[in-house]
Amino acid sequence: MAGRRARSGRGWDAIPPRTGDTPARPRRGRPSRSGPGATADPFDEGARPAGFPDDSTGEPSRAEPRDEAEAAREICLRQLAVRPCTRAELAGALARRGISSEVAAEVLDRYDEVGIIDDAAFARAWVSSRHAGRGLARRALANELRQRGVDGEVAGAALGELDEATEAETARALVDRKLRSARGEPDAIFRRLVGMLARKGYPPGLAIRAVKDALAARSAEAAEFADQIDPDALTPDLDPDLPSM
């Protein structure tokens, strides 16, 4: 329209600048990786630090091969960041990743020296945690420590901190908790509860006594059944496949 002042801006009627009026704005985007002094964009998926695996091949890049000991240390630290591990567990992780036994021993020996690996502390913490959290007895805990490669003497020292009185208290607490929701005849309840304790590693005599005492305090019928049980003479033929209560 004649006499109307043209608007400028970013709208549909914006007037583009004439060539030479203003300097061209620099293009936004990734900096060039070519030429002297160029640096890689850390957010560029195509840029990888030297030594890290290439997505297409799964092999380390060839720009700067990684030292095997460095790779071993990184594997160990990643494992330890998830949860505490024994020396045997870390050795197994290194072997699966192709680390030589010589390098693995060197790295693990150093971690032993500085206290990053401590199987004795691991065993003590494992016994305390698994007994308090899952109610496991010494026999079950010993089996778990053996599966994780803890030396028998080291495991024995940790298990020695869990005495028979503590085991008996934990067994009774487990039975009392299960008994609140138990349904059925006293003999069936008895077998299920003793079976539950057996699966947690409690010796037969201790398990039978714990269930007998709990039943005796439950009802007159259960108490009459419990009076017939001799925990020192009776070892029921428990089915290991019985479902836990």
From TrEMBL:
One of its GO terms (biological process) is regulation of DNA repair. InterPro entries: RecX_HTH_1st (IPR053926), RecX_HTH_2nd (IPR053924), RecX_HTH_3rd (IPR053925), Regulatory_RecX (IPR003783), WH-like_DNA-bd_sf (IPR036388). Residues 61-70 have a biased composition (Basic and acidic residues). Residues 1-70, 226-245 are annotated as: Disordered. Residues 72-110 form the RecX first three-helical domain. One of its GO terms (cellular component) is cytoplasm. It is found in: Cytoplasm. Keywords: Cytoplasm. Residues 118-159 form the RecX second three-helical domain. Residues 167-210 form the RecX third three-helical domain. Its main location: cytoplasm. Pfam families: RecX_HTH1, RecX_HTH2, RecX_HTH3. Modulates RecA activity. Belongs to the RecX family. PANTHER family: REGULATORY PROTEIN RECX FAMILY PROTEIN (PTHR33602). This is Regulatory protein RecX. The lineage of its organism: Bacteria, Bacillati, Actinomycetota, Actinomycetes, Micromonosporales. The gene is recX.
